[in-house]
Amino acid sequence: MENVLRFEHPEYLYGLIVISLLILIYVAFRLGQKRRFERFAKIGMRENLVPSYSTRRANFKFVIFLLVIACSILALANLQSGSKMEEVKREGIDLYLAIDVSNSMNAEDIVPSRLERSKQAINKLIGDMKGDRIGVIVFADKAFVQLPITTDYSAAKMFLSTINTSLVASQGTAIAEAINLAVKSFSDEEHSKAVVIISDGEDHENDAAVKAAQEASKKGIRIYTIGMGLAEGAPIPEYNKYGQQTGYRKDKNGNTIITKLNESMLQQIAAAGNGIYVRASNSNVGLSKIYDDIEKLDKSEIEAKVFTDYEDQFQWFVALAIILLLIEILLSTGKREWERRFNIFEKKL
Parallel, antiparallel, or unpaired for β 79-92 and 300-312? Predict the structure, then answer.
């Protein structure tokens, strides 16, 4: 059996972004340093004016510093290796979370935004799950499976972190397609099954979503809905490629578009799907209330092959970070007299 590697806390890996920022800061600092020196003399004269200074050595120290940060972040994420797989039996239900990723989910009437607040609630729910299987579907104008049904909650959290409104290029709110895709994606095993639609309900399919919920209900699949947004609505932020907000979405007449929660549509879908509807607020998304209702469904025995034994590997990154840090501390930016004989960091002609 091959070892399987995973990070226990993959969210810490986002800290690696800091490295790119530090590189930009360092390059800006070196350019500024060069300009300041050139006020007094040509840069080619620095070797004569400051013979003990080594640019290559300074760069080398900075690279080591970056490696120390990278190792520290990897240690925090805690790489784990697992080689022991067991077949376990659990009692649970199969649950698909269908998440709306249309641009209107960027509205900020639910803080920090409708989509981000949804992800926070789902992340907490996954942390509380014990034996149920979970899958994720994302939809806008089209729907697709982001994560098939699984009991790997770590993978579920990792996939959840990648969800944003750019996943589906064409805009819309294909709730009916999301329901139909979930129904088709469930296994044929006799388990209790449920779908939770998390959306602002701005659906332009008329009654297609209600009919899809009715068909799912006939197959024993319950459809629940959560309304993301407040009654008064909010404008839709627009962002450039760097993630900076540039304004708000406008219609063809130049008026700011206000996206509002279509509560009536979501209530109809939940009623047709034999489920319940909950309106989210800034204090409570309502996912826990729906999950409490889902937990009342008959649970079936679920067999799954899972890795049950993982060994932490973070200590290797800690040790490497300490060694590199010691090297960085001992390595001065200037050249000592005895070192200058070796010219380790200088160009060889």
Answer: antiparallel
Write out pLDDT tens, residues 308-318.
567 788 899 99
3-state secondary structure of 144: strand
Q: Reduced to 3 states, what is the DSSP secondary structure of residue 298?
A: coil
Cα separation values, 67 from 4, 12, 333, Å:
25, 16, 17
Write down the pTM of the prediction: 0.65
Domain ranges within the chain, ordered by starting residue: 4-78+313-341, 85-304
Residue 154 pLDDT level (bands cut at 50, 70, 90) = confident
Please count the other Cβ atoms lying within 10 Å of the Cβ belonging to residue 139: 27
> For 341, phi and psi rounded to 5 degrees?
-70, -25
The residue among 98, 96, 124, 128 whose CA lies nearest residue 192 is 96
Q: What is the mean pLDDT of residues 151-158?
A: 88
**Any idea which fold 85-304 has?**
Rossmann fold (3.40.50)
Task: Choose among 174, 172, 179: nearest CA to 104.
Answer: 172
Determine contact, residues 150/316, Cβ cutoff 8 Å: no
**pLDDT tens-digit series, residues 259-288:** 999 999 999 999 999 999 999 998 899 999
Angle at the Cα of 31 from the Cα atoms of 29 and 32, rounded to 5 degrees = 65
